[in-house]
Write a structure and sequence with these properties.
Helix content is 40%, strand content 22%. It is of the alpha/beta class and 302 residues long. It has a six-stranded parallel sheet with strand order 3-2-1-4-5-6. A hairpin with a 2-residue loop joins β7 (202-207) and β8. Bound molecules: manganese (II) ion (2 copies). The site of one manganese (II) ion has 6 residues, from loops. Residues 14, 73, 95, 116-117, 147 line the site of one manganese (II) ion.
């Protein structure tokens, strides 16, 4: 019987890549394994698979009694495949907190407080003296860069950085350059209309009797918005809000570009910038912690 290797539901790049790299490791050790996933790869993972020419894992929706399972990048029933309670969990490799799972049989577990499951898998390749082929190194590197936001996330450890450097050498890519390309592809706004982008993550607020809308988009695909700046402004200005702010947040550089229907001085005072359409505000990333508390007193003044 084959070992089913899979990551969590709603799979991210780490879940897709760690099931593939774990499956390759198992096969190299003479164990029959199948890489599975609990959903289609998203834009970012699809870019990675295409870049390194690797086929997506097989999609499964449930497992049955008697199936042997290896969990990567998660350790909770609620995040896992349907039917797992009845199946046999033989191994878990993960970097999350324990989620209350119980098992009927003993199992292998490799849990470490690092930034990515593939950092743990890298050390497993080393321990087992298995050579990592270029495309598997590329997948593992991509997952580390994805989970750690190219080492900018506070979850990043020295183990993630040193594994990523070795993997980048094998994969033959430059970490920053490749990482940015991957994030750009993963956050691409291709195929969305102006209306969809403004309303993607939109909230309305009452600030001193004024109806204020704030839409936020996390993307590295800034150009696709700025190239159509006038069209965005036409839409924003026609909206039924006293003020409307479209916040385009660059998660890697930790700042946001603003397009707005608002008196200029409110933008200037709230964010301490020379106000203009498309202005970049360094350090601005959170609607709840920064946008709303900074805008509210300025809007209330008028
Ligand atoms: Mn994950
Ligand atoms: Mn992960």
């Amino acid at each position: 019987m084959s070992l089913l290797v899979f990551g969590h539901k709603n799979p991210d790049t780490d879940s897709i890549c760690s099931c593939l790299s774990m499956t390759y490791l198992k096969k190299s050790l003479g164990i029959d394994a199948i890489a599975c996933c609990l959903g289609e790869p998203k834009k970012e993972a699809a870019f990675v698979l295409n870049y390194f020419g690797v086929e997506a894992p097989k999609i499964i929706n449930s497992v049955e009694e008697g199936d042997e399972c290896c969990l990567v990048d998660h350790n909770e029933f609620g995040q896992s495949v349907d039917g797992l309670e009845k199946a046999t969990i033989v191994e878990i490799v993960d970097h999350h907190k324990l989620g209350g799972m119980t098992t009927s049989t003993p199992l292998s577990m490799n849990l470490k407080p690092v930034g990515c499951t593939n950092t743990i898998l890298y050390s497993m390749y080393k321990e087992n003296e298995i050579e990592i082929p270029r495309e598997i190194a590329g997948l593992m590197l991509s997952a580390i860069l994805s989970d750690t936001l190219i080492f900018r996330s506070p979850t990043t450890t020295e183990y993630d950085i040193s594994a990523a450097k070795k993997l980048a050498e094998i994969a033959g890519v430059d970490i920053e350059e490749y990482g940015m390309e991957m994030f750009k592809a993963g956050t691409s706004l291709d195929g969305y209309s102006i209306e969809e982008i403004v309303n993607m993550d939109f909230k309305a607020f009452d600030m001193g009797g004024k109806n204020v809308g704030i839409g936020q988009v996390m993307t590295l695909d800034i150009d696709s918005v700025m190239d159509k700046k006038e069209d965005f402004l036409d839409y924003i200005n026609s909206a039924e809000f006293d003020m409307l702010y479209l916040v385009i947040t660059d998660i890697i550089n930790e700042g946001s570009y603003l397009l707005y229907k608002s008196p200029d001085h409110i933008v200037g005072n709230a964010f301490n910038v020379e106000p203009s359409q498309g202005v970049y505000v360094d350090g601005l990333v959170s609607r709840k912690k920064q946008l709303v508390p900074n805008l509210t007193p300025e809007v209330e003044k008028i």
